[in-house]
């Protein structure tokens, strides 16, 4: 549960819109995850929705290729005229963009010919595929897709006096270039594309608002520039402190790896990271972390789990209106205790002073849960969750 903050009910898409779902099959049922990715966003969204999550997608950046960029042209000519010993390809889209830009300048064949005679390292399988599609063959690729492993290999080989070209990919490489230069290498950066703010900032603002309102359960980050961009936009809107508070206490920041987490950790935000820095393990991490943050309640012989925008009753998801979720969260903060109508009224979003609104919302909540006995009416006092007798010692009760 996420404290006393009110939640806006998100629009469910895809498989997450099904009315009932087995929690064992869809561990993210009832949770809402924000996605900041520009690249591979559709893949990440599909992985999350397949596991029951509702997804709020807001690309925090856009990728701008640089086919006419003077810096890229200069680096390309430099490498053709003075070939490197090693070329490190870091992203498939970047490597393809580099070759396409060189083709546009009439330098494509010369660039490929130079790379046939050097040690070509690929960061991961997608880059390896792009290299082979260009008619080249990589010398090596790390199983971990980690630039740290690439660095370890280069340093083990010895880099003193070697000329190493690195296809940059818009994310910081902390210590990478410095370590190579300290080892005596000459390092040439190849800037194939740059990260820019999105053309439409509206989705990012909606994601920020949802995070601050605790309408999200987690935000997934797959690049350091996206994380930095989100923080900068919050600063521009004067809501950075609110965003930091939400990410520190209520909304889980999940990062695909330690490099991605750097901008967040610079603000003392603890992040969750998978052991393998890939999208699949990132989603698996969320499937463990988010359900693990929920406190199951034994109520009226049923197992009740309150999630982001829905409730699981004995493992089946029940969609609950926003007003009903507000009431249920207020009751669940003190399970088994009577919560006065006046307190429940204050928990209702925009309810005013009419306690009849509590009765109306309560009736709809009971209908949505499909088990009216979960919530007891205490005449002239209020309502309470019908906590099982076996749990009263753990939670206490005023009955």
Q: Topology, please?
A:
Elements: E1 32-35, H1 41-50, E2 54-57, E3 62-65, H2 70-81, E4 86-89, H3 92-104, H4 108-116, E5 119-122, H5 125-133, H6 147-157, E6 163-168, H7 176-182, E7 186-191, E8 193-196, H8 202-212, E9 218-221, H9 224-236, H10 240-249, E10 252-255, H11 258-265, H12 279-292, E11 297-299, E12 302-306, E13 310-313, E14 316-319, H13 322-332, E15 339-340, H14 341-347, H15 356-369, E16 375-378, E17 382-385, H16 392-395
Parallel strand pairs: 1-2, 1-9, 4-5, 4-6, 6-7, 9-10
Antiparallel strand pairs: 3-8, 11-12, 12-13, 13-14, 15-17, 16-17
Helix pairs in contact: 3-4, 3-5, 9-11, 13-14, 13-15
CATH class of the largest domain: Alpha Beta
Distance between the termini: 24 Å
Radius of gyration: 26 Å
Tell me the major beta sheet: 4 strands, parallel
Total discrete domains: 3
- Which word captures the global form? elongated
Per DSSP E runs of 2 or more residues, the count of β-strands stands at: 17
